[in-house]
Amino acid sequence: MCRMKRNSLKSSLDVCKIYLKGFFGVLENNYESLRVLNVERNGNIIYTYKDDKGNVFFGLYDYQTKQNEHLYTFEKDLQVVSCSVNRERTLLAASLVQAAKEGRRNELQPGSRCLTLLVEIHPINNVKVLKAVDSYIWVQFLYPQVESHPLPENHLLLTSEEKYIEQLHIQVTQEDGNRVVIKNSGHLPRQRVAEDFVWAQWDMSEQRLYYIDLKKSRSVLKCIQFYADEHFSLMFEAPLDVSLSDSGFKLVNFGYDDLQDQEKLSKHPTLCVFTNHTGSLCVCYCPNFDSWEQITYSVLYFHKGHGKTFTATLGHVDSRVTKGITFLSLDYYVAVYLPGHFFHLLNIQHPDLICHSLFLTGNSEVIDMLPHSPLQSLSGSLVLDWGSGKLYRALLNQSYLLEFLWNTRLDCEKLALLHCVLSCGRDPRRLEAKIIQWISENISACHSFDLVQEFIIASSYWSIYPETSNMDKLLPYSSLLTWDTEIPGITLVTEEIPLPLMKVHSFKGYWEKLNSNLEYVKYSKPHLHYNNSVVRREWHSLISEEKKGKRRSTVYVRNILDNAIKVISNLEARNLEPRLTPLLQEEDNHQRLLMGLMVSELKDHLLRHLQGVEKKKIEQMVLDYVSKLLDLICQILEASWRKHNLHPWVLHFNRRASAAEFAVFHIMTRILEATNSLFLPLPPGFHTLHTILGVHCLPLHNLLHYIDNGVLLLTETAVTRLMKDLDNTEKNEKVKFSIIVRLPPLTGQKICRLWDHPVSSNIISRNHVKQLLQNYNKQPRSSVMDKSSFSVEFLPLNYFIEILTDIESSNPALYAFEGRDNVDAKFVEEAALKHTTMLLGL
């Protein structure tokens, strides 16, 4: 899942060893001294090793070319504290101490324990001493965004064990062709960046410095952003409720740090800051271990305005914690890993519900796949294994996540894995096909949530999320609003936290997104996630008006139906392959109304809350989102249709149902349940196909129960086909009559004309008479009565027939009797006579 497997991914350090052997001719027994020192912003790895004489070699592994380059050699037996090289590879900064060997004289300057040097290496030339002090110094060149041409000035950070950080400005110039030398070597301007801090973290990929100082015994987190020129800005201050000692000192991501006592550091509180491109800001904190039975750690989601404190059970009392906890940044997730005990994958975009994060205990095979030695998290998802010295890039392995999804049994793990897989975003069509295959095999396996519903909502969300920022606040991420089920092995407490105080007023890039998130937390307490409640009310209103014969303005309805046409066109453009299922082939005005209303309401919702985004782009995003909802439903049906090898003849009623049709009918019923509760549209033709399969698969009493409870909707297309396909056996007559009496009046009148049967004749006649008498006004009549062809001996009936005949003849165009071909006149006469005698009590 978290891809740091030695078999499938070579570490960068392994590659370094392979190239070193051929490039430098280093002996095999010198590999033990090979050590990663730093990873620069461009991905280049700086390492060191010693030869048999103790000489210190500095090398660089180029991330782009996969080649090694020798940078410099110190012909003294020294130990390297820190090292950094500028972007142009013309300057090398290094901090060194006396190697820990007895009987050796001090190779450094007298009275100093640590020597910090600046070396010209293009070509190798002068060496300048920057500091010769008793405290350790860590060095780091700044890497600006500008990549087009060499910069005339370089900037170097010096971080001292004496709790201060300063910036040196180094001007360089070219002499004798390509020779690069320091221009102002006599005096390098210095600038104090921070001081009196107890903890600091360097973010190489974003060129940011985080540090904590203690103000009146309270920890305050500060962040400094460095820019392409020499200036830097304090971006924010945030109070932290963490326990840090004023006497302590810890650095994070200032290179490979084997000089700070690892045994001492394992007892020191662990603290890391993580950000990502969406404007998230997380602080992960684990205090000192005080129990071997459980461990407590906190994650402060500043971009959400709250923090969560987790307590994880460690299992057996004798399973002591011998290694420190590791926090890893994995794009939309932060991983918390305690070797041999647990792995917690925290969703930082949507941290509200614990079920959207994955918690695995020590008996999981995932734990066995990860390194069991202490890990150090570096910038850019890099991880350093202290035990082996190997450097990894930690990534979420989509293939393994899918495999794990198939095998897991807990609902909370299924839910977390589903969202995690979708967030990976690589080859979404293939990914959705695999998830749909899993859903079809496990359609009834989840009891805590609706699997189809969650997949449709989550996949639609991730399809549109990268389009613009703030989508996580405006579109639903999950169908769940709460989660009350306990997750084995972990508990949590949620509390609000003070928001960071921004110290600048103009924002760009990440800072603009972070500020937007903070503003949302401050001023938008009600959730802005879109839902279809307004669409539900408007749709029911339109359908009710249609049943009563009323209509909204033609322009309004036409605009809604035009929205639906755009959605279906967009959907068809996405999928060029011919569909197996007969969807999108009929009008189905009710679903088109729902589709169009959702487009209209969602567009208004995004226009209200997405500032600075073009209207045309928002309209296209809305079409894409609604199309995606429908496409996912089509994909589920297509996969089920293909799996069970159904053929077009299943659409005919004059045959028995197969087990395959039962399976597809069950899938369609689950899709209907999922969409009904969220009031989502269905592809036109869905209800027709569902009803046809229902007639095939269900006994009559069950079929009528499904119809009466709204599970099966009697579309005109489905009932028309039923009337034509089924003959008039006693069983089929019962089915037809049971369905006809459940149709809306207008649809029922149309369908009756298709069925040549006395029952349909009776219904047609009743409806016709009812229509004639609705607006009947009694008029004086002539005493002379024409003998009608329908005259009978029963005088009241004769009189009634004459009245009807007069009404028809008064306006033939208005009262034309449709469906005359299917009327049995003798049957109508007998039925009318019987009905009259019943009413008169004769």
Automatic annotation (TrEMBL):
Domain of life: Eukaryota
InterPro entries the record matches: GSAP_C_dom, GSAP_fam
Name of this protein: Gamma-secretase activating protein
PANTHER family: GAMMA-SECRETASE-ACTIVATING PROTEIN (PTHR13630:SF1)
GO biological process, any: positive regulation of amyloid-beta formation
Pfam families according to UniProt: GSAP-16 (PF14959)
Record domain Gamma-secretase-activating protein C-terminal: where: 630-737
GO cellular component: trans-Golgi network
Parts of the chain that traverse the membrane: none
